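Anyone? Bumping this.
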Amino acid sequence: MTDVSDANGATRRRGIRELLSFPEFQLDPARACHALLRRLPDGMRAASAQAALVEAAGRLGLPPAAARLWDESLPVASGTAQADRYKEREVRRPLLRPDHPLRVTFAEYADGVCDLVLVAHRRVLAPCDLDAIASLLSGPANSSAYAAGAAGMGPGGRSGPPVPLSDSPGPAAPVPAPGSAAPVRPDWGLGDPRCSGTEISVPLTVRTPAEPFVPLLAAATALVLSRYEGGGHPELTVLVEDETGHDTVTWLNPPITRDTRTADLVADCRRALEECQDRPAPHANTHIGLIVTRHRPDDAYVPCLAPAFPLTVEWTVDGADTLRGLLRCDAGAVGPQIAEGFAQHLARAVESLSAGTCEAGDLELLDAAETRAVLAAGRTEAAPAHDAAPIHDHFRRIARARPDAPALSSGDHTLTYRELDARSDAAAAGLRAFGVRTGDLVGVCLERGPDLVVVLLGVLKAGAAYVPMDPEYPADRLAYTVRDAGIRLVVTDSSQFPDQGARRIHPDGLATTPRHDAGSPDARPAGPDDPAYVIYTSGSTGRPKGVVVPHRNVAALLAATTPALGLGPDDVWTLFHSTAFDFSVWEIWGCLLTGGHLIVVPHFTTRTPEDFYDLLLERQVTLLSQTPSAFSALREVDTRRRSQLALRLVVFGGEPVDLRGLDDWLRRHSGCRLINMFGITETTVHATQQPLTRAGIAAGSRSVGRALPGWSLSVRDEAGRVQPFGAVGEIYVSGAGVADGYLNRDDLTAERFVTDPATGLRTYRSGDLGRMHPDGQIDHLGRLDDQVKVRGYRIELGEIRSVLTQDVAVEDAAVVRETDGPLDAAAVRLAAYLVLSKGGSVDAVRARASRILPAHMIPAFFAAVPALPLTLNGKVDAAGLRALVAAQTATAPHSAHTTPDETGTAVALTAFRHVLGEQVGPDDDFFDLGGNSMLAVQVVGALRRVGLAEVTVRQLYSHPTAAEIARWAEQATAHAAG
Amino acid sequence: MERLQNKVVLVTGAARGIGRACAVRAAEEGADMVLLDAPGTLPTVGYELGTGDQLDDTAELCRKHGVAALTLFADVRSSAAVRAAVDQAADRFGRIDVLINNAGIGASAGKAAHEMTEEEWQILLDVNLSGSWRMLQAVVPLMLALQGGSIVNVASTAGLVGYRHFAGYVASKHGLIGLTKSAALDYGPFSVRVNALCPGPVRDDPRMDGGLGGVVANSLGISLDEQDAVDLESVALKTLVNPADIADAAVWLAGDESRKVTGTVIAVDAGFTAK
């Protein structure tokens, strides 16, 4: 009988042994030790306990160190606060040394009361072993309990043969290498690393579910976790002390979808718990652990001295109607509000599963009060009574207040506010003369220049809304916009503008049009609710759609930002972005409606960071709006030039911010604030703001900040329900910035612009992933579209990118989802594009990434590119990346074999090849090779380095082959010499 | 007043004097205590070291504050003894957060530096300097595992200035300050702080059972009152330093309030070194 018991014990202990072998338990033994406290019967003496301990240690085969009884005689009475604190400390003291599996302390208080405290490595001694030792030491009064062998340690027997704590003798205490002990933290935990070491515990009480209830507890935990993680396979470890006091360990990762029946989930968990005992998680510990412990009426039992898992849920089985649990976590891993919330949600899930089966998606995590609290955290009240006047009225007021101040400069040309007002009046009159009426849409396709702003303002003054079109867009895209918007009139100076039946008018034609029609009686002035502009966004799928934004939204944006950013007449802004990108709305109206001076940045300057840097210096620009990608090129120039810029504020938008290098920037430009703003065209440029501080940068914060005044953000699950703090979900935006909808796309409008059942407000579903902090800050986690599922695991591309960019050999990186067929999920693969630093190799980067990332997150394809191509809007261009690599790896272009016969061409060719690859021939066209503006900057840099010092991006665009640019350079040199 | 709650503090030379004052003060702040001393006599040292009874008295004074106190004998001149003591402390408490390196011997040699014997010189360095280093050597791995800790080296104003006829003592305490600064650099990245305290002229406190003031006076051939009078004249505050004054500073260095303080030397000397 003893033999059988031994064998069982040994088998059973394999699971706990494997679990507690994970490094975090070795580094922090408090997580791997358990403790038992027993109040001793009257008259117990330390000496007899010591004798019993020697005997027990001998029977258990424990080393001599474990046979020492630590006798503590405290001159304070039991039951005092001091004595209670002492006991609390005693049951939390871990065992450090591998050869020291047990500590027994005998505490005697001033009133003669004695406590026995046992602390043991759970890997070596099971709960039943602690019971048995305690019973033996409690003296004859309790020896019957021990003799009965209920705890598995009958006389001469025990729960199993001794298990060595360590396979090899180690140092007294493990010494971590710096940075090696980065603790595992669940993303949703929102722990504060500065609070590491502080334990949080939240009590839980639920009605005891029907037997067997461990599978139900596990299923409820998995269900809540799947909601926090946004679906997939929630993983948890279940450590159960069975009725004989032995440990069993089971790793669960049940698949959960919205329509999983909870009864099936419970059954799955039950099966796993019965069949897969003693199997911890295969590779690393799980974020959540469930520890089920038997109730000990006479003792206090602590199943782990410190939370064994980042989030540990302990349940004690006592057969009563209510089941008591304790949620424990380290504040460094899970913050206090998240812990409170998780406990509530878990209790609700347990009650719900006990009550009967439903679908997993039906479980309501949050009650009404909590939903209100989360919504309130995500809302920022608007400034009281801001001026909702239409843009042009607002402008007129500014123009009257400061008529002679400079409003707009382009090159050598400057318009004052009075002049801009007058010229836009004339344009408005011209438009009216051409039949434009209030509520009409007017296409505007102009290069950035003074005319552009005059015309935009003129359109608004005429009561119409502008539909900006970038002259760089392909003719098909322009034609599509005209057709889709039903535009009847386009102001353009391009003779190439496609003929789609819309009337094309040159801006000069507007100013010179007779004004006879200007005052026609139907001129109902546009009001705050009329559309101001329609901007087409492409999105990742489907055809471009026009977002209709009314005047009042722009007024609200300025009311929300002017006080916080201190916008005013002393500011000098740049108009850097295409009007087809709504960042320009911010640049133009942010400046002109606060009295600032707007500097138009010529197209080529926006593509040449050196030149743009010069412009910033020369114009003393104070307020710059940039995509992080564009800013990174500018920052690089700044690193080299180190000039004193007048910038007081840089506003990031359009893309997730790249924190690298920003600390250097802040150190160099102490007077310059950096603000990251998350926003979407559909919510009027910006929706949140987050000052980027050196502390936040150091902490690697992904926060995009809180909602702007007047905006509300929340995070929702797939069913549109409000997600708790910390949990991942889709960002919903409501409030002052929500657009009217998509032009002529009622279906899509109804799908994305919804009436939120939780608030009754008109709300935009952003398609962006995020999580909310208890203070209302939002972490932006990428696009829903960018989520990739591999074998059911949900992957975020941003997470992979951040691992790649941490590699010193990587200057920049993009990770994109690629697929061979649009609907073939199996063909989806991850591709990583790397901009390597000098000497970096793709293989080394891949090797490092493979060490850090789980297998399902390692990109299938790695390629080096000279630079990340940007879209017209300054964002990373995924399609361009593919084209670029295709161009690099394609079979050699037709002229590759042509031997360059001129020295100049050979020199230029080395520069081309340096950037574009070795297969480039002298007559290959830069653009045919996948060339774009960013690559152009690289090629020009390379050309300058090989001695063609005069080359600019503009010349490369005009002379796009190595041979041509070499000829041009020769002529230029000859000309200069002559 | 529980500034050291949940911490474990090890004090060497804890039987009496400044060591006892530090121990009792730390216990008052809620720390569980490891108390170390080495009863007996040392060659060339003209007074009896702290006794086992005195160490037990210190432990009892600590326990009155509801904390555990483990008493251990170990001579800091022996690496093996130091290691065994620290192992026991680790077994008992599972951690050591604070080391107060207080054990030391001192008295005037009564002669110039070159007149000291090899043995007199060696023993001062072995206890005061090397002993502190041996303690540090044994305790630091535990602190690194915890990723934090505080070491307080009790030096002396003799670590800052010279004293006539005290060459060995002065050299050992200057050395201890050097050890403090270097160790602070070694362990700074792991949040283990190392600082030194420099007590100035200390008045014997009967409650702390120490008598080094008398020993020093004796070695100089004057009475304790005369010694105190000379000391009083030398300090700015016109009051002598009590062991409790040192203990207050030690507890501050031990606790989290001094979390940004490392490699520093704090003189608690009533202004003796101000001039």
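Late reply, but here is one note on the structure posted above: The mean pLDDT of chain A is 84.
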